[in-house]
Design goal:
Elements lengths: L12 H13 L8 E5 L4 H16 L3 E8 L6 H15 L4 E5 L8 H20 L3 E3 L4 H13 L4 H4 L5 E2 L2 E2 L7 H11 L15 H16 L3 H30 E2 L2 E3 H5 L3 H14 L9 H12 L7 E3 L3 E6 L2 E6 L2
Parallel strand pairs: 1-2, 1-4, 2-3, 4-6
Antiparallel strand pairs: 5-6, 7-8, 8-11, 9-10, 10-11
GO cellular component, one term: cytoplasm
Subcellular location: Cytoplasm
Protein name: tRNA(Ile)-lysidine synthase
Length: about 325
């Protein structure tokens, strides 16, 4: 009942679903933890931010907000300030506009993502945040799986985005984009629709625009099923990664890898050990392709005296008797 004795307005189902998702995602945080929300001002991150503003204080947590200005279009600074002003008025503390310079490595999408995550990581460190919430939805997960399939990705790519990794949490991976839009409408939130989300030069935008046609052709459950596939593959991949970590422990010799130990394991484990070893050795994940891992694996199972394998970043792997070593070539 409201103070006047009437019925309280009914909570929109979309708002309830998003609040429930945020509550579940943050249930394990200790009292007085600082939760940072990464918010662009679009419907997904605004719905997430509004839910966090409602849930966090009731759970005994503090809630801050970071918005990133990529400076990729005119007026981006004003839009970032509008998001920050809304956050302050809503009660977020701290609130910060992180201005970044986007490079070119990996293409425009990857470069913008790298700059954004670097800014969010820096803010989380400075404010000692327990976690950073990201607004990716079930639709984003489905798009990620399709993009991975188009690249011929393996289990790592088909696993999509994890719901948790390090400080990052994605509460909305089981929430539809339709729900975030509906929640913003119900709460009358000031939503900004980024023009880059309609720019056809971006692969994700092309996939997003194709999704309605794919849904018409393959059924209304397509998005949910793609997201489910990502979750199932991620579960299997996690189990294999755990086994691979044990193999690596046995195979590690003076910073290199024992050929004998690797060769006694199935390819699914060998390639995971090799991939993690190369990443830990300095090869960037964005530059490491399956052809690199396969060629290194050939040094183990198809050895005929071949030369060192050249890798991105000026690194190389060579076999010396029963050991693989990773060295700098430049």
């Amino acid at each position: 009942m409201d103070p006047a004795g009437g019925l309280m307005p009914r909570l929109a189902p979309s708002v309830a679903r998003i609040r429930s998702a945020v509550r579940s995602a943050c249930a394990d945080l200790s009292a007085d933890s600082l939760i940072l929300v990464a918010c662009s001002g679009g419907p997904d991150s605004m719905a997430l931010a509004a839910a966090c503003a409602f849930i966090a204080p009731r759970a005994g947590h503090r809630c801050g907000l970071i918005t990133v200005d990529h400076r990729l279009q005119a007026g981006s600074d004003r839009q970032a300030e509008r998001v920050a002003d809304w956050a302050r008025e809503t009660g977020f503390d701290p609130v910060e506009v992180a201005t970044v310079t986007v490079g070119t490595a990996g293409g425009p999408e990857a470069a913008a993502r790298d700059s954004r995550y670097a800014a969010l990581r820096s803010a989380a460190d400075r404010f000692d945040a327990a976690t950073v919430l990201l607004g990716h939805t079930r639709d984003d997960q489905a798009e990620t799986v399709l993009l991975a399939l188009s690249r011929g990705a393996g289990p790592h790519g088909l696993s999509g985005m994890p719901s948790r990794r390090d400080r990052w949490r994605r509460p909305l991976l089981d929430v539809s984009r339709a729900d975030t839009v509906a929640a913003c409408d119900a709460l009358e939130l000031p939503v900004w629709n980024d023009p880059h989300n309609r720019a056809p030069e971006y692969a994700r935008v092309r996939v997003r625009e194709a999704m309605p046609h794919l849904t018409d052709a393959l059924g209304v459950k397509l998005i949910a099923n793609l997201a489910r596939t990502a979750r199932l593959v991620a579960e299997d991949n996690s189990a294999l990664e755990s086994l691979a970590a044990r193999v690596r422990g046995r195979a590690t010799v003076d910073g290199g890898l024992s050929v004998g130990e690797l060769s006694s394991n199935p390819r699914a484990l060998r390639t995971r050990v090799i991939r993690r070893w190369l990443l830990d050795g300095g090869v960037r994940a964005a530059d490491l392709a399956s052809v690199h891992i396969d060629t290194v694996d050939d040094l183990v199972v198809d050895w005929h005296g071949q030369r060192a394998v050249q890798l991105p970043g000026g690194l190389s792997v060579r076999r010396e008797r029963d050991r693989l070593s990773l060295t700098t070539t430049v």
